[in-house]
Amino acid sequence: MHVPPHLLSAADLDRDTALHVLDTAARIEQAIGRREVRKLPTLRGRTVVNLFFEDSTRTRISFELAAKRLSADVINFSAKGSSVSKGESLKDTAWTLQAMGADAVVCRHSSSGAPQRLSGWVDGAVINAGDGTHEHPTQALLDAYTLRRHLGDLRGRRIVIVGDVLHSRVARSNVLLLHTLGAQVTLVAPPTLLPVGVGSWPVQVSYDLDAALLGADAVMMLRVQAERMAGAFFPTAREYSRGYGLDRRRHDLLAGHGIVLHPGPMNRGMEITPEVADGVDSVIVEQVANGVTVRMAVLYLLLSGELTPGAA
To answer: Measured on CA atoms in the order 90, 92, 98, 100, is the torsion positive or negative?
Structure first.
């Protein structure tokens, strides 16, 4: 029996597979750039379902645009106001998608592990578009794509990830993928915003942002996810900003070619000042554009059978 490949975790990607995705994204960007109509016929006749149990306009639109640029049919399924919010289970929804003949299901869910469960119930490829505080593999791929465009080979590059690591699926996926690609990753956060077991991650951990930034090739600021915080993780927003916010002075500690990333949406003035967010070394807007290209590559490779994450 043919088991379709899924993209559920950045850990599913070995170095060669990850580089294949990034190189394919670069080829797609080149192919589309030469066209008057920015569309490829690659997935004509295939159906991609965006299954979002949690709000995320940016990621949903990015996947929708990626699928449409590959000429796929797109169904947007929002759990808000649907039968799901009236008590339908994930399994029931999976059966509905199965009956529709979805070739790929892009799943965003507030519960960690939901896309993994879904992958056992549908025949189509499942792509994890963010599950709880667990993972967000396509975000890590688009971040790596952006980093490679500016820094070249990431082997030996020093990348600093700063902020709310505890609640960040982006941080987890980035740590796994950047390590696979040979980068040296340092996490910087208050002790209260680091997860239990972070000592087993392939990273260095620091509480001193200035020291970590000195000579680094890139810094990725994470959004403080106040909506996921039930307790007091730091005294005040001002206190957090003073210890872990990126301002012009801290930005200038980076290497001369250093760049600034943020997965968005940003809390301007808290984790990053507007001056730095909008500065010449900021690639935050570019990350959004690269997200469409990278997700086109993921959809194309999964549905063409060229991408078999975790198959090894």
So the answer is: negative
